[in-house]
């Protein structure tokens, strides 16, 4: 029986992001993750909404991800493929590729979650067993296997990285999976062409859902920098009072750079989707009073971050010694204002978000969905007020599904169906909530925050990005090149085109992802990849500035030794 309590507004937010994997001096992709997530996760996530037209959610697309998706479209259109792994898929003669390319194939094409993406496919598992059985070492390992082995491995890797919705509907994918082995060049070229078509359709698919009113689309400062840290390193200590900071006291010209990232993101969004974004996910949910008000100054109406930031903000805004029950403060938007600008702030339910990110992949889809719905029903039943509870579940929309059976197909299908059919739950977007509140159509409690604590969605702090020796070294290296950048810009020695190239390269270096991966708790393979790419980006900036490259950039910043959950691509909102 339907409760007389006010309907629960369920606010689901999927964040889509990949850092720039290109070497800007060569335009070649160093890592393939953008196009692989495109054909697996971005296709499937669109499909589930298209299949459930009554479901409403918000997607966040970081502009640097959209830049790369459009770049891949241009590569296919021009047939100038600058991603070496993708190019090898369509290589006519795999018997005579270079040792370097053979090494790339073998080192790349087993990189996935084997339990869910390799073991289910007998032919793919056979290829892996052959590789494991080889006793040869060194360069001989990469030259020992035939061109046919390389062809089959390339095809199966890309089949494993194809979305479940594509596997179930596309005749080519079904034919290749049935064939299983001995793939010829025609098979590989056909798969290659399909990948291009899937990527080309992505932005139009999401744009259509936005235009149909089914989804809201938001953005992030263009290259995913943590705005509060660009503005003030010392803001770290709001949540980490004793954290060591970089030697550089302040990021030079940080406010100017923060403005540039916000303005470029807004321009990007309008170009791709035809209108300015209403809301913004600050990179890593990284917020501070000055960062949020800077966003508001640019017309951003809402932003979101983690539950830990809200808890710290409530302590900071009042004299309370302990927080009330979560359901008394978490399930509502807040308003931050300085009298001139104001911005609505939403805070994720860490527990529910982390269940999707880390727990439900281990359960049968029906059991996971039942648990999630029961959790929402408990929140609904616990509401003793006349206000509608607003539950915000916010998480990575791409990395979790690798650990789910069938790329989360059954979980997402059943989840959307259950949410849409539930009598006490209404799926909404951020702007829906603001509109309901502003127009006074529905009683939605909106409290005012007199101050907001600085922090992120991870533990409510910036410990993932600053405060350790490796992370701080990363910042100091960035500060060093920024000082050189400022000197060169003031000298006027570069042309307008050269200046634009330098600014673009600097923006890439300012992204948060490099600092995320520094630290012993991450795996050595991941740390090495991102460490090398970050130092390459810094080195490229020195080259573009026509300045000598410091010797320190030849040395690793960090060496990982850990084995984090889900490969380290996601973190929990709260420490366990």
What features would you highlight for this structure?
alpha/beta, immunoglobulin/albumin-binding domain-like, five-stranded parallel β-sheet, 9% strand
Concise synopsis of the structure shown:
The chain has 576 residues and is α/β, with parallel strands linked by helices.
Write the layout of secondary structure elements.
Blueprint: E1 8-16, E2 22-23, E3 28-29, H1 33-50, E4 57-61, H2 63-78, H3 84-89, H4 99-108, H5 114-117, H6 122-133, H7 139-144, H8 147-160, H9 164-167, H10 171-179, H11 185-211, E5 215-218, H12 227-231, H13 254-273, E6 279-280, H14 289-297, E7 302-305, H15 307-317, E8 334-337, E9 342-347, H16 350-359, H17 365-382, E10 390-396, H18 409-421, E11 425-428, H19 430-438, E12 447-449, H20 469-491, H21 496-509, H22 513-517, H23 524-544
Parallel strand pairs: 1-4, 1-10, 1-11, 4-5, 6-7, 7-9, 8-12
Antiparallel strand pairs: 2-3, 8-9
Helix pairs in contact: 1-11, 2-11, 8-11, 17-18, 20-21, 21-23
